[in-house]
Structure formats: structure tokens, C-alpha cells
Amino acid sequence: MKSGIMEVPDMFVVTKADLGDMAAKAVADLEGALSLRLHPGDWDARVLQVSTLDPRLGIGPLIAALDAHEHWLKTQGLRDLKRRDQMKSWGRTNLLLHIGRDGLAALSEKSLRHLDSETPFQSFINCGLRCSFKAVKRLLPQIRGWPYG
């Protein structure tokens, strides 16, 4: 395992589980790493194996595990919160990609309160990723110094 910071997801999926020892080692490594968590939380992160060659390790158990996780998120009241946080993260990344660090800094400096009651950025967050490029195009002309407005 490489040293550094690692985000611990809610589920790990080892593909090509039919490779025998290599897949078993990957599963053991992941389970070993998960056992070192200081704050495991309420959801028990799972390590799953999938294979197109072994029907016992097909897509069915993966779908069942994903459904169980979604049900847990809903019952804990976390699903919408996590989705919104992820959209914000993707939105920031998308803006950063399209307008760069300086453009994002300019946006922060301008302060969203000086724009309409629902800013292009808020509009982007509210409607989700499907309109991200449209929101970025609406946002760019409002950033001071953007040459393509």
C-alpha cells in the first residue's frame, strides 16, 4: 500500500475476482487497510469481488450491496446531504477547470451576494451536473477580467 492520504469510500470492488491469488491478495489488503480505521463510522465499508467468468461473483451481489448502501444513506438522512456535497465538489472542480484558480478567486472576491438572488453558481448547484456547462457559461461574463464574456 502506498503511503499518503487516501479517501476511504463506502465500498470497494475488486474486479476480475476469477484471477485467484491476485484477487484474494487485493481483498486481503483492502480488508487489512480497513481494519486500521480510527473512526469506522456507522456504515461498515464492504469489500466485494466481481467476475464475469464466475456466476457467483457476478453483478447481482454488487447491485444488492449498492442498494443496501443507498437504503442505509436514506434511513440515516445522509443521501441528499452527500449528493449535495458531491455536487458542490464537482461544481468547484468544473469551475476550476474552466476558469482556473484566478477566476475562482475572482468569483470569491466578488461575493455572491452582489449578484441576483439566485446566482449562476447557486443555479448550478441547485440543478446538478446536467447543467454545469451552461452554468459556467452564464458565470464567466460576470467575472472581472474574463476575456471571453
Give the tally of structural domains: 2
E-strand count = 2
- Spell out the helices and strands N to C: EHEHHHH
Work out the oligomeric state of the chains in this entry: single chain
Major sheet description: 2 strands, parallel
Category by helix and strand content: mainly alpha
Please tell me the overall pLDDT: 73
Describe the global form. Answer: elongated
Give the strand content: 5-15%
Strands, helices and their partners?
Layout: E1 11-14, H1 21-35, E2 46-49, H2 59-75, H3 79-110, H4 120-127, H5 132-139
Helix pairs in contact: 4-5
Summarize the structure.
The protein has helices spanning 21-35, 59-75, 79-110, 120-127, 132-139; strands spanning 11-14, 46-49.
What would your notes on this structure say?
- InterPro entries: P-loop_NTPase.
- The protein is mostly helical and 149 residues long.
- The protein folds into two domains: 11-76, no CATH class; 80-142, no CATH class.
- Helices cover 54% and strands 5% of the residues.
- It is built from five helices and two strands; from the N terminus they run βαβαααα.
- The chain has a two-stranded parallel ribbon with strand order 1-2.
- α1 (21-35) links the parallel β1 (11-14) and β2 (46-49).
- α4 packs antiparallel against α5.
- The N and C termini lie far apart (47 Å).
